[in-house]
Amino acid sequence: MSTQVLLIQGHPDPAGGHLCHALAQAYAEGAREAGYELRTLDVAQLDFPLLRSQHAWTHEPLPPALAPAQEAIRWADHLVFVFPLWLGGMPALLKGFLEQIAREGFAFAKDAKNPMAGKLLKGRSARLVVTMGMPAAVYRYYFRAHSIKALERNILGFVGIGPIEETLIGMVEAIDDKARVKWFDTLRALGRQAR
Question: Taking the model in full, what pTM does it have?
Answer without folding.
Answer: 0.95
